[in-house]
Structure formats: C-alpha cells, structure tokens
Amino acid sequence: MITLENEHIKASFLPKGAELKSLIKKDSGQQYMWNADPDYWGKTSPVLFPIVGALKNNTYNYKDSEYELSRHGFARDKEFQIQQLGNQEVLFTLKSDEQTLKNYPFEFNLGLRYRLNEDILSCSYEVHNPGASNLLFSIGGHPAFAVPLSKGEDYNDYELEFNADQVLTYYKINDNLIDHKTENITLLNRKLRLQHNLFYDDALVFKSLKSNRISLKGGQNKPGIHFSFEGFPYFGIWSAKDADFVCLEPWCGIADGIDHDQDLDKKEGIITLLPGGSWHRTWKVQPF
Fold first, then answer.
1. Structural domains of the chain in order of their starting residue, each with its CATH number
2. pLDDT digits over 243-268, tens only?
3. Most CB contacts within 10 A, which of 12, 18, 83, 97?
C-alpha cells in the first residue's frame, strides 16, 4: 500500500490498478471510501481504460481485424509501476506490452498521478502516444464513496447536490449498452436524494451535464465530499444493488450504443491521439 499524507488528509493506494483505496480526513478520522465488500462490489476506484463501459458482444473492429475487450478494459487489473513518489504525490504508470497488444493493437503510456493540495486529493489521467500510429482510447474514473458516512444514518439521508443542473437527463442501459431512451429527473434545489432503487436498472448515464461539481451531503454538520471534474463529456452515477456506496464517475468515453456497428474509429467518445501526443484530465475530491 502506498500512502500520501499531509496535515489535512491521508490517502492510500494499491499499485494493482493504481487504485485509490482509502481517503481519511485526519482531524475526524472519517473514512470516505467504500470498503470493497466483495458480496456487493470488490473495488473502490478502478481506472477505466482503454474503454469505458461495454462493447457490443465485447468486441470491436479495427483495420479489418476483430478484437475482444471486457467491460471497462484491462488497466484496472494490471500492476502499475511507481514512477514517482513523494509525501504528497505519486505517479503510477502502465505501458503497452506484448500481452496488451494482442487485443488492443496500440502503443500507449498511461499515468495516474495522485496529488494532495491541502484538503483536496486530485487524480490526473496522463496518456502519451509513444508509437508511430494514432492511439485510440477512452478513459474514466469510478471512485466509490461510502454512504452513509455516519453511524445511525440511512442511505436515503444523503443527497447529491449539482452546482449547475436543475433537471437531469439520463440514458437507459440495455444489456450493458446505451439505449436511445432517456428519462428525466427534476431536482429540488439542484439536489438528488439518494435511494437504492435509483440503481436497480444499472447506472445513471449522462451526456449533457452542466455541472462540474457534485457534492455528497448528509445534512448540517455531517461529513461529505465535494467532487470536481472538468473536461469530461460523460458522467455516470452508480451503486451495486442495495450497497452502501455511490460511485461518481467522470468519463471521457462511453459504452457502445445498442446499434453501434462496432467500428472503433466510429465509436462515440473515442479519443484519437496523434503519434508523440499527450493528453490529460483531472478530477478532485475534497472531504469535509
């Protein structure tokens, strides 16, 4: 376990998947991350790369060849290298190799950089194309925050507050793929009350959020988080059935649509990075 710490917060990570496992506010000792109970969902914050969500039939076509990738890609199950490490910053890296090239024929360097800045933890995705051909990829976050955060509380004591949305339009998921059908949720004072049944039909998937900050709140003087994200065109909110967490998922990429032709070049949300090019995005969490 790799740990970063300052006077405000303490965060711990595993090199496998470069996964955030623990986030503690030091003055209260409050733990903010889901405990990864395998009876519900055994992860806490996997990175989604080189795809976000599922492919139709778990396959895609590229340059007249067919390849197979499981849901959310392979990076979350790979052992990352520790490239840099200090008291308040760590850089985990993963590079393409003979194994990844079999089902993902692209050279890549992927970095996950975690940094503490006072009471804020940031996670930056850094992608570099070291090859001679274009790199096609998607990437996203999947951090799971514990709900409730305080003893004696219930899941529906908590709400998500959006900084710029009054109505949420989400896409339905059909057999892990994105349907054309949408539904609306009208917010009360930009707040969505958490309920387990929100996620009985899978994640809420958004393509048009106006917000770039979502706050998880449990009431006056109760612990919560501010979750900030810029430059992520898609967003998911999810929990396993009746589990005590909520995932706030900023995405650059999305699952295949139900009528997608499986051509990777035409996949919605796919990013094309030129040879020698670099790309990055950052999300931040501030516990309170």
1. 2-287 (2.70.98.10)
2. 999 999 999 999 999 999 999 999 99
3. 18
